[in-house]
Design goal:
Blueprint: H1 5-29, E1 82-86, E2 90-95, E3 101-112, E4 115-121, E5 131-139, E6 158-160, E7 167-176, E8 179-188, E9 193-202, E10 208-219, E11 237-241, E12 246-248, H2 251-256, E13 259-264, E14 267-272, E15 275-281, E16 286-293, E17 297-303, E18 307-309, E19 314-325, H3 328-334, H4 348-365, H5 368-382, H6 384-399, H7 401-410, H8 415-429, H9 437-456, H10 480-494, H11 502-519, H12 524-551
Parallel strand pairs: 1-6
Antiparallel strand pairs: 1-2, 2-3, 3-4, 5-10, 7-8, 8-9, 9-19, 10-17, 10-18, 11-12, 11-14, 13-16, 14-15, 15-19, 16-17
């Protein structure tokens, strides 16, 4: 029975780890999200950008050294110089200066389930808490350029996605010295990705060379941590994808080793729990990616190659912006690698198929709670042959209890003799004393996978089930599910044989109480999974025990 100790302690360790995470998650919810703007923010009152925030121009082919244009910091626009865009999913604010996207309100996502009128806001123009995405053009040889310091104009200050329309186009224009740039934002119904097209019309008498760029600036606002916090699921910070690999970057690491890399098919952004903002340049061309941290904010940029627009000609530069929840279908639809921002950790191999199964079931039943119950039953069915064999061995162990007790009494003062006699009995009766470990080993990966899916998947964020369970990603508010789960575990324990080792017997007796306390802090969806699993495991063991008793005529094994 020594082999029982490892799975038990492994399970207890997982319970303790997840309890700390759940406790810290509840503490962190009381703190404002990083980058969230104050309730009264003067949109457009942005701090002046520093000279160094423009991405460096790439070297053009067959041209001499470029002369960097001398740019004076632009004056901050007056409050209200902003274009507001309303869709069915977003309310976006676009600053007149540079056409920057400075605010995004997610209409379908409340900050708190108890107050669904206050929506999640991902971006912020607030000084000291800025979180802004900029796009623009860098021009060669000191020519005028429509960068994010320049002022754009719009025919309207407010745009609405009309009823029945699938797309909304918001144009902003900039003109200087015969060069006209039209920046068009394309919004689609129900989508969180925004298409950006910058069209250059060259009305001058000479070639015009320009390179498009994307820039993200975000203040680094670390949350307070405790020594028990292993809060990897709510990482808030810069991320980068180079077309092959995805990297979460600690701002302090960027300060020591700035990012500088050329990549094709990449993107840059910033993530936080359940939400992501990302700029995706044109995927077919190489871009120079740079990132740095100045101690208070981090900046990531990507700039493409210089392209020539002949006199009287026209050229367009395309990119995308994603600002919204980590909806995996939309992330995959938007750009390669963007779905990697949904981080299930080392258990992705279990969690990703599990999420697919839950989402498929949800499409049929329309409730994530019932989807969890059905997924649990499917897992039980798949594992049934293994758990059935373990259950039969446990049933035989149960019938051997009188003889095991007799051996313990006979060899009370001879531990080695007692162990030899017990092992001989197990061998004779063809019973594996470690068979009870198998269900724990089989369920532990699924338990951890359920935990990460419930914590990390925004699709289940604030999802209701029945009655008082109005958020499967949060703990049961009145602890009924943990109590029911503890009762189910106690019932299941009564059907299994007691371990012959007194210490293990005491541990097993305390397990329902320990689990009940631990599960009070877990997401109620996870408790629902373990409750369902415990109930059906108990019914399965009860059936196996009844069949074993009938097969032996109700007599204990000899």
């Amino acid at each position: 029975m020594e082999r029982l100790r490892f799975p038990l302690w492994a399970l207890f360790g997982a319970m303790l780890l997840f309890s700390w995470q759940a406790w810290n998650r509840d503490r962190d919810r009381a703190q404002p999200a990083a980058g969230a703007p104050p309730a009264e923010t003067a949109v457009g009152a942005l701090p002046n950008p520093e000279d160094g925030d423009l991405p460096a121009l790439p070297s053009p082919p067959d041209r001499g050294e470029l002369r960097e244009p001398v740019l004076e910091p632009a004056a901050a626009p007056q409050a209200g110089s902003v274009v507001r865009v309303h869709t069915d999913a977003l309310v976006v604010s676009i600053s007149a200066r540079g056409g920057d996207v400075v605010e995004a309100e997610l209409l379908d996502y409340a900050q708190d389930k108890k107050n669904d009128q206050v929506k999640v806001r991902l971006l912020s123009p607030s000084p000291g808490a800025e979180y802004i995405f900029s796009t623009g053009l860098r021009a060669a040889e000191g020519a005028p350029e429509a960068n994010h310091r320049e002022r754009f104009s719009s025919e309207r200050s407010e745009y609405w996605l009309e009823e029945g329309a699938e797309e909304l186009v918001v144009p902003l224009t900039w003109t200087s010295e015969g060069i006209t740039v039209t920046k068009r934002y394309r919004f689609r119904r129900g989508k969180y990705y925004i298409g950006i097209e910058q069209t250059v019309q060259n009305g001058s008498g000479a070639d015009y060379q320009a390179a498009s760029y994307a820039l993200m600036r975000r203040a680094h606002l670390p949350r307070k941590r405790s020594m028990f916090n292993v809060d990897t699921y709510s990482f808030t910070g810069p991320v980068y994808y180079n077309g092959d690999s995805y990297d979460r970057m600690d701002p302090e690491d960027l300060a020591d080793e700035p990012l500088s890399e050329t990549a094709t098919g990449g993107w840059l952004g910033s993530i936080q729990h359940h939400f992501v903002g990302a700029a995706i340049p044109e995927g077919s061309e190489p871009h120079q990616y740079d990132g740095r941290f100045d101690g208070s904010s981090y900046r990531l940029s990507a700039i493409g190659p210089l392209k020539t627009v002949p006199p009287g000609g026209e050229r367009s530069y395309s990119s995308q912006l994603f600002v919204g929840p980590k909806l995996q279908a939309q992330l995959r639809e938007t750009a390669p690698g963007l779905a990697l921002t949904v981080d299930y950790g080392i258990f992705t191999v279990f969690a990703q198929p599990l999420f697919w199964l839950l989402k498929t079931l949800f499409a049929f039943v329309g409730n994530w709670g019932w989807a969890i119950i059905l997924a649990t039953l499917i897992i039980k069915a798949v594992l049934f042959p293994l758990t059935e064999a373990s259950g039969r061995s446990m049933a035989r162990m149960r019938k051997l209890q009188p003889r095991l007790k007799s051996i313990q009494e006979r060899f009370k003062d001879d531990p080695q003799g007692r162990n030899r006699a017990m092992m001989e009995l197990y061998k004779t009766e063809k019973v594996n004393p470690a068979a009870g470990c198998l269900p724990i080993f089989l369920q532990l990966p699924f338990f951890i996978a359920f935990y990460w899916v419930l914590v990390e998947s925004v699709e289940i964020r604030q999802a209701p089930f029945l009655l008082w369970i109005n958020d499967l990603s949060s703990r049961d508010p009145i602890f009924v599910l943990p109590a029911l789960m503890g009762a189910a575990m106690f019932w299941q324990q009564k059907l299994n044989p007691k371990p012959p080792d007194p210490m293990q017997a005491r541990i097993m007796t305390a397990m329902p109480v320990i689990f009940t306390v631990f599960f009070m802090f877990f997401p109620s969806g996870l408790v629902l999974y373990w409750l369902t699993n415990s109930v059906f495991s108990t019914l399965q063991q009860w059936r196996i025990n009844r069949r074993a008793e009938k097969a032996s005529g109700g007599r204990p094994a000899r």
